[in-house]
Amino acid sequence: MTKGQIESAVRRASNIFDKWNDVAGIFERDSGYYFEILGVIEDAVHCGSQAATRDFKKMDSEKDT
Prior knowledge:
Number of domains: 1
Shape: globular
Structural class: mainly alpha
Helix content: 55-70%
Radius of gyration: 13 Å
Number of strands: 0
């Protein structure tokens, strides 16, 4: 997958989340929790792209701090 394809997938997933959140109203936009969940969604997209390409690399969120 290209960088552009992954970025497009992240935007798509974020838009799907925003539509759901607009209805559910769980996360206030521009709050810390909102940005945290967007980060989790982005990581999930990257996990999926890694699985599709069998190119597994640890993401920052998986590394020991």
